[in-house]
Each structure stands twice: as structure tokens, then as C-alpha cells.
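Limitations

Structures in this collection are predictions, not experimental determinations, and the ligand pose is part of the prediction. Treat each record accordingly. The example that follows, with C8R as the small molecule, is included so readers can see exactly what is and is not provided: the inputs are given verbatim, and the output is the predicted complex.
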Amino acid sequence: IVIVIIAVVLGLTLRQNKSEFKSTFLSRCEKFNQTDCQKVWDAFEQAYVNKDPCKVAVEAYDPLIVAAPFKPQCNRMMFWSKTKDVVHGFTEKRDCFVTLEDTLLGSVLDGLTWCGKEGSKGTFTTGCPGWSECENNPVRSFWRRISAAFADVACGDVTAMLSGSIDTPFNPTRKKAPAESGSGRGICCNRLEDSTKDMLWKTARDNNIFASIEVVRFQASRIKSLNVVMVLQQNAKSNCTDPSLKNLRQTLDTGITYSCKDVPESRIQECGAKPEIACGACW
Ligand code: C8R
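Predicted complex:
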């Protein structure tokens, strides 16, 4: 009897989790007009349901990108690494930039954890692998896939906020893909075939999505410039003169103009708080 009760309670909790997760997904999704959220859910769910939660490849989310494609917003796209709070503190208040979290898929899944299980149709929110526990977990593969799709459509003048509070603000730390070795230019996948780009998933083993996934997909045919904002807090450890930013320049597709500006975090906050300051005059 005890076992039956435990099983029933456990079953109900897991069900509860599923419906709670799905209802969060749908209610966040419904804020976007003209979206068939059930269709988006179906495309999302197929990526990880009934799978070992350490065996969800980045490509499993391809149908999701097809179901909810990214629309380019030229000159307004904002990328970031290790500066999430500053960036969103700013973008929430001002309509100057669009981050991935302002898009349908980014906003729907921001802050959530999910996974499936072999032999189950359910979505679970507990007992899922952590970000670094195994490479191909559903959450990590999701952010990699949608970050790539977001970077693929980037256009015009692009902004990236990087952190001056760490030693290496641009840190790809990835192995070279075989196709690149001997190219002498380091990472340079913009001229590579799509199949080779896909191979880059497998070599981008670190956590840094901006450096290992987004920058390498920026295309000179679409993007005019990359404008880095180094966010400086008190006791900053790095700024625009940091050697790692030289790597960033070298990684960039030739033809994309690079610039970097050191900006105190307080200035970004000030600009967020004062709508009278024009977007272009923030830094
Ligand atoms: N991007 C990546 N990861 C994101 C994300 C996002 O938009 N939104 C969330 N919530 N996350 P980091 P990074 C989660 O190391 O790896 C895009 C993921 O769990 O500071 O260089 C975005 O377009 C992920 O582990 O940044 C941005 O430009 C961390 O937050 C880069 O990729 C990301 O933490 C940032 O990726």
C-alpha cells in the first residue's frame, strides 16, 4: 500500500510538473501575437521527449527553429557574455536593442529547466542533468541551437556587451575543427560549408556561447559592424585593450568593422533610467 501511495504521489507530482511547465510555456508564448503556440510546443517537445536527457543533440531543435523562425532586426541586435543582468536591466527599460530573450523562443524558455526520459512521453523539471553534467543535455543544446539561429540572422550594426569583471572577456577555448587547421587564421567558419558549421557544435565544448557559437556565424554579407561594449564595474579586470579581444577581431569575418568602447556599468544603468538620453548617445 505504501509503495502504491508513493507511486501515485510521485506520478501526480510529475504530471503536475509537466502541466505547470507547459502552461508557463504557453502563457509566455501567447504574449506574442499571431503565433500558433501549440504548434511551437509540439516542435519544442519532440526535441527531447522520450530521449535519454544526455543524448539531445543541438540539431534536435532544428524543427523548432523552422516552426518559430527568427526575424532579423537590423542595427538593433544585442549579444552578450557574462553580462546578462546588466544587459537585461537596460533592455527591459529602453527599447534600443533586441536580445535573444526578447524573441519568442528566448523569452519562453528563459530561466527554465526541462528534460525527457526514455520510455516516457513526459516533460520533467526535476532530476534533469545540470548544464555541464553532460554535453548534450536538452537545455544546453537548446541555447546553443537558438543562439546560432539568432546569430545567423544578425545584420547591420551589431552590439555585444562583454564583461570587464573577468580576466578573459572573449573566451572561445575550443579545439579547432579539422577543416580549419592549417588555415592560419584560427577560427574562420564563415566561409565554411553548412555541414562544417554543424560540425562546430561538436568542437565547441565550453560554456561560452557568444565566443564559440555566435561570433563564428556572423557573416560579412549581412553585418556591417560589431560594436563591443566592455561593461566596467569597480575594480575591473579587463577592458578594450585586453588581448582576448584581439582574438575576437581575428575571428570576425573579414569585412565586418570592429569597435570597442569601455563603458562604466553605472552609465548603462543611467541610460536605462533616463529615456531622454537617445539610444545612440548612451555610450
Ligand atoms: N544566450 C546564451 N545563453 C543564454 C541566453 C542567451 O540568450 N539566455 C539565457 N537565459 N541563457 P553566459 P554565453 C542561459 O556564459 O554563454 C545567447 C544559458 O543557460 O554569460 O556567452 C545570447 O544571444 C547559458 O548557459 O553567456 C548571448 O549573446 C547562460 O545563460 C550569448 O548567447 C549564458 O551565460 C550568451 O552566451
